[in-house]
Amino acid sequence: MKYLSIAGARRRACVIGFAAAALLAAAPARAHESCAAEGVWTVPGGGRISAQEILGRAAAAQVVLLGESHDNADHHRWELQMASALAALRPKIALGFEMFPRRVQAELGRWVAGELTQEQFLKAADWSQVWGHDAALYLPLFQFARLNRIPMLALNVERALVRSVGAHGLAAVPPDQREGISKPAEPSAAYLSRLFDAYAQHPERNPSAPARSDPAFRRFVEAQLVWDRAMAQALWAAAARDPDALVVGVMGARHVTYGEGVQHQLMDLGIQRMVSLLPWDHDSDCADFSTGMASAVYGIPYQPPEPAAPPPPLLGIRIDTAADGVRVVAVSAGSIAEAAGLQAEDVLTEAAGTAVKTTDELKHIVVRTAPGTWLPLKARRNSAAIELTAKFPPAR
Fold it and tell me: How many other C-beta atoms are found inside a 10 Å radius of the C-beta of residue 68?
């Protein structure tokens, strides 16, 4: 993949990168009791650091890892600032995402090239199935990449591979089914301890008192290592293709902290110049803030929570894709669907005048239905065509 320089007209689009860097440098720290003050950068165990210094270090690295909580909107805003600032400081940059498996890499290329609408991109990338978190949180970063023709990289593997390793162990997965993942580096003792703590918090995996000697725990560790190794290999391969490019990985914070996850695997692959950056929420527990957690963390300023949005409308059905529509698997008692007359095994073919062929298409129409309105439906019951109306109650 060719990494394109942001030059000429595209460089103007990166003016926001300089603005982001200046904003981070100038943001006043709000006084409050915290291990990482809001609006400034802090090196865990080393005190504050200027935005200019940490961004300069990051821009000079081979790989930068950005950690996030997937459902935190401010984390995604921070990631956009980081991508913008780094793109302004480094002529070539690529953005890698945990959110995409390798099989959709071609769709990422089509998106960056401007060949797909936003809706087409999310559908082609199978977003609702492979990730599922609110796409609106990620779209500003995706749009930034498209506007500046910054390559996007699919870092992940199929969940089925990780689940298979967790269930049977890596040795049980044939090499030709590992998506090219090489043998992961063995974890550090500290990483094993953290993984065991996570494992022990899920007794459904092992109803008895868990022990580190449990074969199930070892398989759990192998699954995590495959996940880390997959992302590390994708980042390493991108850096190897173009040594002049800065490769930025966007992923869950647990893959980034303490250099034990993806960073550990990158070092095993030969990447030496790495920077790990994390956002730090105002209410995070300072007991978790310790030396070596990351190269630096940025204190996310407090914002009062928004009023809870009303829940999306629900028909009250379980569905599956059929050959020529959406099959109703079950209808909940007392639901809007039951009141409309829908039955299990009906095949929905149209909603609100639009043909529906996949479950995602039907869900998209339903969530856009306003409270107090009616949703016309067409379906097939046995061999007969039927028309029904789902009546959504007014908002309370």
Answer: 22
